[in-house]
Amino acid sequence: MPTTEEATTIFTGLESRVRSYSRSWPVVFDRAVGSTMTTEDGDEYLDFFSGAGALNYGHNNPRLKRVLLDYIADDRVTHSLDMFTSARRDFLQEFERSILSPRDLDYRLVFPGPGGANAVEAALKLARKVTGRESVVNFTNAFHGMTLGALSVTGNSLKRNGAGVPLVHATPMPYDDYFDHSYPDFFYFERLLSDSGSGLNEPAAVIVETVQGEGGMNAARAEWLRGLAELCRTHDILLIVDDVQMGCGRTGGFFSFEEAGIVPDMVCLSKSISGYGLPMALTLIKPELDVWEPGEHNGTFRGISPAFATASEAIRTYWTDDALEKSTITKGTRIESRFNGIVARHPDASLVAKGRGLARGLQFATGELAGAVCHDAFERGLLMETSGPEGEVMKLLPALTITDAELDRGLDIIDASVDAVLAR
Question: Does the keyword Transferase apply (predicted)?
Fold first, then answer.
């Protein structure tokens, strides 16, 4: 049996240094089912990472796997660009019937490419085309992707600096609670919009995450989101909600903005929309915004039909009633309670429990502490990552289908790891 170093030599020797997750988890994974990942050595890890939110229904979900295997075995179309296929039609019908219509939402669907950054780029591009304006407003600690347009509306300096060119035509504003409610909501933003001497170019759009995952599990209040939607309406600014990580049920409802009762002009979806971890992305746009010329925005991988097949089955399985939504909210409350207990147990550690639904975080005083807790948890058999501008937040994204027993086992590991690290 090779040592860990021998087993990983090909990765460390041939892959770029840009690798990240494999540095935190230096083992070779081979199999995965539900919320458990297994290494080639047979060691099992409980997964509270879920492909950074791309596996809301767990690894190799059996119902989705059966649909995928049958689809491939039957020589169904795999690659189709934007040609009509039966799999594409099935998805559109299921999405309209089970997702849009019950929520009284009227959107056209753009298939912008395989990933979340593609969905964001399409939204930004269309907003500028519709309005004739260049500027977009984003928020502090936002993350919207790694391509140039998406990076321009991202807050993290490490990721922004990787662009190598000026990132322009975007203006950051304070996210909810950035000033600890020392000022009224949108005090700064509204002043700049109303003052002809502010120097703020009239924005084409505002792009926002209802919960900032990479930014540190910062959850915006429903009233803040409603205030933002009203501000955009008042000033004729398009509202884009980036639901790439927080959509598809992560916070409870299928869309993370449902709780606030708002209707964005555009919505970006990816990650778990395919249901199985397959590449797929959507940009939802109000019909009056659909001013594209044919082929004006396109891409080779915007019609991956096996993803349509698993996406349709995921909707049929989990979104024809509210059982998953209720379960997600209940499990999220359980995590919140456990985190509040940890905070109370360590009153001098400056801990803060954060998040919503099954997107949860525990903020530490430093990134070193959060990283140490995640490392200790990994040694105990649990996969978690950190987030936040300094990596100071321990971030949980368990599968929505995780069992109560698995959730409790993971929370017990977190309890032990936090206690062990803070006792050092």
Answer: yes
**Is 80 exceeded by the pLDDT of residue 184?**
yes
Q: Report whether CATH 3.40.190.10 matches the domain 76-318.
A: no
For tokens 């998953």, the residue is 324
Q: Spell out the SS3 assignment of 204-273.
A: CEEEECCEECCCCCEECCHHHHHHHHHHHHHCCCEEEEECCCCCCCCCCCCCCCHHHCCCCCEEEECHHH
pTM listed for this prediction: 0.96
Q: Which residue has the tokens 């790891």?
A: 417
CB proximity list for 146: less than 8 A, separation 6 or greater: 117, 159, 162
* CATH code 3.40.640.10 region(s) in the chain: 76-318
Q: Tens digits of per-residue pLDDT, 299-338? A: 999 989 999 999 999 999 999 999 999 999 999 999 999 9
At the fourth CATH level, the homologous superfamily of domain 4-61+322-422 is Aspartate Aminotransferase, domain 1 (3.90.1150.10)
